[in-house]
Amino acid sequence: MSGNSPLVEHEAPERLLAQRGLFAGPSPIVSEDLYAEVSRGVADRERQRLVLHPHAAVSMNTYFGRFPATYWQRWCVSPEVELSLVLTGSGQVSVVASDAEGEPRTVAARSVEGAEDELVRLTAKIDKFTDGGGLWFDVSTGDDQLVVEQVRWTVAPPRKVRPTAVVICTFNRVEDCLNTMAALASDREPLDLVDAIYVVDQGSDPVESRPRFAEVAAQLGDKLRYVRQPNLGGAGGFTRGLYEVTEVDGAEHANVLFMDDDVLCEPEIVVRTTAFANRTAQPVIVGGQMLYLLHPNHLHVGAEYANLDTLAPGQVVDGALHNADLTGYDEETGKKNTQDRRVDAGYNGWWSCLIPSEIVKAIGYPLPMFFQWDDIEYGYRARAHGFATVTLPGAGVWHADFHWKDWDDWHRYFNLRNAMITSALHSRFEPKRICRSMAAQLATYLVAMQYGLAATQLKAIEDFLKGPEMLHDGGVQAAAEIRKLRAEYPETVRHPASEVPGIPSGDLPLVPAPPAPRLFAPVLVKRVMYQLLGKNVHDVGAVTAGDAAWWHVSLFNTAVVTDASQEGVRVRRRDRELAIRLGREGARLIKELYNRAPELQREYRAAMGGLTSRDNWRRLYDL
């Protein structure tokens, strides 16, 4: 299962499947309203079958029900799309279009009476959606029932269909990985579009060790390529898939679809990203969207970018939805939360993201960053070479909610270090702006008694200052060192809320935060002076995760802060001497960063070609 075989050359079908009409999700935790909304009467929603009782109406103006026409018009060469349905019974089907403001208009309609498995085709032009808008269909019944099945949106095919390979990168998340593999194996139609599924296992607890692996492997058959390798982080795992695919004969026109191991996988994403990539005018990175696993109706972000000048990832593109309930309505406009306005992404996260092999050939492989910002760096490098990133609405998977992950963790090291590398490579990298941002961050960590997080930041700056040679081993040593470093700081340890060390639960009042200050800089200076002088407002108290801002926590001598995961608490205790030592070390490192920024930028840019080369990854993989 670890060997290569040629990717199959796909002859063009009569019509290219762009997306299917689905009426329910891949899991019971997912609301059917994300797929089909019953607007009147009673309807039974199954995965690929919809039964409307008499006097019912169902709208597919939903997250998974819409065809993202504005993105197809902007990026693709398809002038029209055909909707086909198999109908049994009596009723009406209408194809509806919207504009950038979400205003609907009917573009085609068909009624049937007493139909028996009747194939109905309706065509819509993709011609009035440049700034925004989508297509969907509505269906309704009168006195009789109507069954809707085999719903397909199709476009004219290319001469040859590009094959797709899926790459799943995993590290000691065996059950999660098996669930993702099983989801892909469970749906034959998307699976038929995939020539290979690479499972790159970097963990000490192998996925193949479970009895269930053999069962799922048998379902995937000869499509499965199971690869074991040392832990080189997400960058090393996903890049291994690119490396293997581009080794295969005929793979110069292949698509590689990255898939996180811990997502709730909607197999339909294979259909939609593959079709889109097959019809773009020029190769583009096609990103899937992330929905929240703990809150499955919510979209993380419609499209995002990174501010490389301030090292800020995850910035919401103007006009894009963010943390939005896709089954809800906008409070201001009263309209449903649909993604009508087209927005252009700066990059796409690798929870699910398709990369055409032509882009790899043109710009090289990802940087061996180990973890964090590897997807951002690759997106901006592609952009610098003329390859856009499209975050495609309706192509989604569910991933753990980001705001339920605590910022004070070992991965913050890679976030900071790799942000500086990306900024040096793809921005002006202005020393004054970068260093001001770093100094402000450090000050807030220190006053909030996050000494381990401050040490994490300083380690990131220190290693960045070592230059590109620090990436020689792909991040293995850095990952070990940062965990060891953080273990020296007690407040990085999470405790059960019922067993806070050294503090009886009865002596722990919950202290709510006052309103946020209007001017942060003067307040920060005031908090720093308070701590230097040994002053505090509260001796000890509990602080909720939502109130854990630096300007509140800094008022305590000891603060028991709820972890963002809601799985426990962390105990932050004031340590004036430690804060002074870390502050002095930070001032030294930030000054060096300021003085050496232009030199380091030149070094990282000069090393880019070697670091992203196939030869370098071959060495890292010890092949």
Topology readout:
Blueprint: E1 10-11, E2 16-21, E3 37-40, E4 43-45, E5 49-52, E6 57-59, H1 69-75, E7 80-98, E8 104-125, E9 135-140, E10 146-155, E11 160-161, E12 164-170, H2 174-186, H3 188-192, E13 194-201, H4 211-220, E14 224-228, H5 233-245, E15 255-260, H6 268-279, E16 285-292, E17 298-301, E18 304-307, E19 312-316, E20 322-325, E21 352-356, H7 357-363, H8 374-384, E22 389-399, H9 411-426, H10 431-447, H11 451-465, H12 476-486, H13 520-532, E23 538-543, H14 550-553, E24 556-562, E25 569-573, H15 576-611, H16 614-620
Parallel strand pairs: 12-13, 12-15, 13-14, 16-22, 23-24
Antiparallel strand pairs: 1-11, 2-10, 3-6, 4-5, 5-10, 6-9, 7-8, 7-9, 7-10, 15-21, 16-21, 17-20, 18-19, 24-25
Pfam families: GlfT2_domain3, Glft2_N, Glyco_tranf_2_3
InterPro entries: GlfT2_C, GlfT2_N, Nucleotide-diphossugar_trans
Family: Belongs to the glycosyltransferase 2 family.
Describe the structure.
The chain is built from 16 helices and 25 strands. The strands form six sheets. Strands 2, 3, 4, 5, 6, 7, 8, 9 and 10 form a nine-stranded antiparallel β-sheet that branches. The protein has a seven-stranded mixed β-sheet with strand order 14-13-12-15-21-16-22, sandwiched between helices. Strands 23-24-25 form a three-stranded mixed β-sheet, with no helix packed on it. 48% of the residues are buried. A hairpin with a 3-residue loop joins β4 and β5 (49-52). The chain is an alpha+beta fold. Helices cover 32% and strands 27% of the residues. The longest helix has 36 residues, at 576-611. The protein has three domains: 15-155, Galactose-binding domain-like (Jelly Rolls); 160-404, Spore Coat Polysaccharide Biosynthesis Protein SpsA, Chain A (Alpha-Beta Complex); 411-578, no CATH class. Pathway: Cell wall biogenesis; cell wall polysaccharide biosynthesis. Residues 435-622 form the Galactofuranosyltransferase-2 C-terminal domain. Belongs to the glycosyltransferase 2 family. Keywords: Glycosyltransferase, Transferase. InterPro entries: GlfT2_C, GlfT2_N, Nucleotide-diphossugar_trans.
